[in-house]
Design brief:
about 0% helix; globular
């Protein structure tokens, strides 16, 4: 099925650790994101869905901090029915800084961190195709990180509206740095999420609705992981930057 996928890829330098990978798309017909290691370089890959009339945009969030370590976990696929979940649990001395999900077919709801902030959960959505063979479940990817004197919180946007293109945004509190983002739509149809800059250079996370939904459905929420150093004698600071491809190809 690799030929079915439309791929966009971003790479981070060896000295920087990828904390999050996400995509945006004008439509909900996308298959999500993957974190993969190739020749010692971590790659963020965004995949479009078959017969989509719009491309996808891959965005890697790469961060640098003295003493920061990360490992990457994957779990799944989930069972191929609506609401089925796959969970990647981080080691006890780490926390999930970034969560992403991928499905062979565009039928996933997205990802979220569990209430204890120790794992990433991906959820399968309503099957996109009637053919039972065209259902694969969701695979979840977790960036599990730890660092000295590092304090992290999560902030979540309000739900978007139910019209294609509707957006909601959220920012980190003052003194925190946005290190990753995730999106979730209980009824599916998300267009993903993207970190952009406002007029003063502060990171803003936007969640996007990828298709119009019926009244009573749920919109998209976007969640940002925000970190800062808290020890008085801590040395260094959290530095993050984005690597973003302008547009993937269309099918």
């Amino acid at each position: 099925m690799w030929g079915f996928w439309d791929l966009d890829r971003r790479e981070s330098e060896n000295k920087d650790l990828v904390r999050g990978v996400n995509l945006t798309a004008k439509l909900n017909k996308r298959q999500g994101e993957k974190l993969e290691m190739k020749d010692g370089v971590l790659q963020c890959k965004a995949y479009n869905g078959g017969n989509s009339s719009a491309g996808v945009r891959a965005q890697a969030r790469c961060c640098r901090l003295s003493g920061l370590t990360c490992e990457y976990r994957v779990a799944g696929p989930s069972l191929p029915f609506e609401g089925a979940q796959a969970e990647a649990t981080c080691p006890s001395n780490t926390q999930p800084f970034g969560c992403s999900s991928h499905s062979r077919y565009p039928d996933m709801d997205g990802t979220y961190q569990d209430v204890n902030a120790s794992s990433c959960v991906a959820q399968s959505g309503h099957p996109a195709l009637a053919d039972p063979a065209a259902r694969s479940g969701s695979v979840v990817f977790a960036s599990c990180c730890s660092g000295p004197s590092l304090n992290c919180i999560r902030v979540t946007s309000q739900e978007t509206g139910l019209v294609r293109g509707d957006q909601q945004q959220v920012t980190c509190p003052s003194s925190y740095v946005m290190v990753s983002c995730a999106y979730f739509a209980p009824n599916g149809k998300s267009g993903g999420a993207s970190i952009v800059r406002d007029v003063i250079g502060k990171g803003v996370l936007r969640g996007i609705m990828g298709a119009s939904m019926n009244t009573g459905s749920s919109g998209v929420t976007a969640t940002a992981t925000c970190c800062k150093m808290i020890a008085v004698n801590a040395v260094g600071f959290v530095l993050c930057f984005m690597i973003m491809h302008l547009n993937g190809a269309n099918f």
